[in-house]
Here is the input.
Amino acid sequence: MRLCQLYIVTATGYYTAVQGARPVQDLELLHRMIPYIEAVRPGRGRYYDLYVAHVTEDWIPDDLSHGAMVKLQEKLKAQLP
Here is the structure.
C-alpha cells in the first residue's frame, strides 16, 4: 500500500493539514479527519480545499497528486475577487 498525506490546498500553495504528521497507509483515517478539519477551519471550497495525496518515501507528493493540487489551486485562484 502507498503512503498518503492529507493536504490543505489554498490559492497560493499547499501544506500538510496536520503539521508534523507523517504519511500513513490508512486512507480511511485520513478521510475520517476531513470533517474535523472542516469544523475548525471554515471556508472549504471557497478559501481552501482538502486533498489526500500519495507521497513518496521522502514525504513529497507524487507527480499525479502534485498536478491535482495545482489544479485545485488554480480553481481557488479563479474564485478570488
Summary: The first strand starts at residue 3 and ends at 10. The chain has one domain: 3-79. The beta strands are 3-10, 13-16, 49-55.
